[in-house]
Design brief:
The chain is α+β, with helices and mostly antiparallel strands. The chain has a single domain, classed as Alpha-Beta Plaits, CATH 3.30.70. Helix content is about 25%, strand content about 50%. The relative contact order is 0.36.
């Protein structure tokens, strides 16, 4: 099995949501589930609302659904969507 590079868009419930707290919780969840954090950025959506874009590595045998469910459980998160997934060269 290989390593997958995954980008997930994490949408907050409002523009006032603390994105740094979401990033911190996401980092913990991804590492607990066997992933390796790479990069976090913010993407403007509309009317001051920004999404968190998390990029991480995950062994292909690890279930991505577990991470998605855990990320959806973070306080202040409205939705989670996988926006890119590809096999990384080692």
């Amino acid at each position: 099995m290989g390593i997958a590079g995954i980008k997930i868009k994490i949408m907050p419930v409002s523009p006032e949501t603390d994105l740094e707290k979401i990033k911190e919780e996401a980092r913990k969840i991804i590492e607990e589930k066997g992933g390796k954090n790479r990069d976090y950025s913010e993407e403007p959506i509309a009317f001051g609302l920004k999404a968190v874009i998390a990029f991480f590595e995950l062994p292909e045998e690890n279930p991505l659904e577990d991470i998605e469910r855990a990320l959806e459980g973070i306080e202040g998160v409205n939705s989670v969507q996988v926006i890119d997934m590809r096999r990384l060269c080692e």
